[in-house]
Amino acid sequence: QVQLGESGGGLVQTGGSLRLSCAASGGTISNYAMGWFRQAPGKEREFVAAIRLRSSITHYADSVKGRFTISRDNAKNTLYLQMNSLKPEDTAVYSCAAEPGAYPGTSYHRWSYWGQGTQVTVSS
Fold it and tell me: Residue 24 in contact with residue 98, Cβ under 8 Å?
């Protein structure tokens, strides 16, 4: 059973950048579809980005398209989210997720494994 741990969150000004990392253990991420979700206070968890199993096909929420980039380093067993041109509305707890096999889509309840999350705060 894969275990996930995020890092790289923090406080950044509007227009700044952050790179989140999600290190996996107990499983190889090359066997999983991988994704990032976020949850702001008082809001439901929402899809941010995903990358499919054994391919370079990626998916993004419209709100982050062109600003965020998801990538995976199978040799390091780590998933990344490069976030540029950050906005205050990007403030949230960001969590990585994994699902064995096929890409399950953007609904968070279809993803089986989760990290604990890392806080990203963008000041105006």
Answer: yes
Q: How far is it, in rounded angstroms, from Cα 51 to Cα 36?
A: 9
Looking at every residue in the chain, the average pLDDT score rounds to 96
97-110 confidence digits (pLDDT tens): 999 989 999 999 99
- The Cα–Cα gap between 59 and 65 comes to 9
Is residue 56 predicted with pLDDT exceeding 90? no
d(CA 67, CA 111): 24
Q: Which residues of 54-74 are buried (b: 16+ CB within 10 A; e: fewer)?
A: eeeebbbbeebeeebbbebee
Which two structure tokens, joined as six digits, stand for 56? 């370079």
At position 46, the amino acid (one-letter code) is E
Closest to 72 in 3D by CA, of 62, 63, 82: 82
